[in-house]
Design a protein that fits this description.
Layout (H helix, E strand, L loop, with lengths): L3 H32 L21 H28 L22 H34 L4 H20 L2 H11 L2 H11 L1 H16 L21
Helix pairs in contact: 1-2, 1-6, 1-7, 2-3, 2-6, 3-4, 3-5, 4-7, 5-6
């Protein structure tokens, strides 16, 4: 188990990865907007939304705060999986390949433990993490109850389904060969593109929603929006 100091370092690293994903998404969307054909400016304005005009550091700060806050939950979940579905010395301390037969579980049992971890993780923790992201980011953005309900309706299932295209393969590696202390950083690095997707997904929710106040905009759309 990580010490409080080690866990704080892991949380800061994870928050940095989440924030980096948001920065990439914002820069890409701003670049796409500015690279759009100039002819688009001559198109009818009826029904057009106000577009992003500048980078929003507060949005990145929200992503960073979410990544830091969610890290202890994620770490304790991985520790629970370790205790509930043990794998002997296979992932203990280092990635050693030479372990005596008496101290190493049979390969079939090890594979079974990995698959059990993966099944429990994707059926229980993945839906919870998606719920925490959508609800947590909406709360930090100041959405009201009705707006949060609408956010969940529009965003929850698409984000959850998209996660199933990435995380099962990554978690097989994470659960089988990565020591507990490094699983969150490993997921943070792998999840860089995932955090970018989450930023894009939140931005799409904002631009598809009606603004609560006329002229209320941020760097990614006409309403404020926003990881694992």
């Amino acid at each position: 188990m990580a010490t409080p100091r080690q866990l704080a370092k892991i949380a800061l690293f994870n928050g940095s990865m989440v924030a980096t994903g948001n920065i990439i998404a914002q820069v890409f969307m701003l670049w796409s907007e500015r690279a759009a054909p100039a002819a688009a400016d001559n198109s009818p304005t009826v029904g057009r939304r106000e577009s992003a005009s500048s980078y929003d550091p507060l949005q990145t700060l929200r992503f960073f705060a979410y990544g830091v806050a969610f890290t202890p939950i994620s770490y304790r979940w991985h520790a629970f999986l370790d205790a509930r579905f043990p794998m002997g010395d296979i992932v203990a301390g280092s990635l050693k390949k030479s372990v005596t037969a008496s101290s190493k579980m049979p390969l079939s049992r090890s594979a079974c433990a990995v698959l059990k971890r993966l099944a429990v993780d994707q059926t229980i923790f993945a839906p919870f993490a998606t719920f925490a992201f959508v609800g947590g980011m909406g709360a930090m953005e100041g959405l009201g109850p009705n707006e949060l309900v609408e956010r969940f309706r529009l965003q929850y299932l698409p984000v959850l389904i998209a996660g199933y295209a990435l995380w099962p393969a990554a978690q097989i590696i994470n659960f089988s060969i990565v020591p507990l202390a490094y699983r969150i950083p490993f997921a943070g690095v792998v999840g860089l593109m995932w955090h970018t997707y989450l930023s894009w997904s939140n931005a799409r929710m904002k631009t598809n929603a009606l603004p609560r106040e006329i002229g209320h905009t941020d760097a990614l759309g006409s309403m404020v929006t926003v990881v694992n």
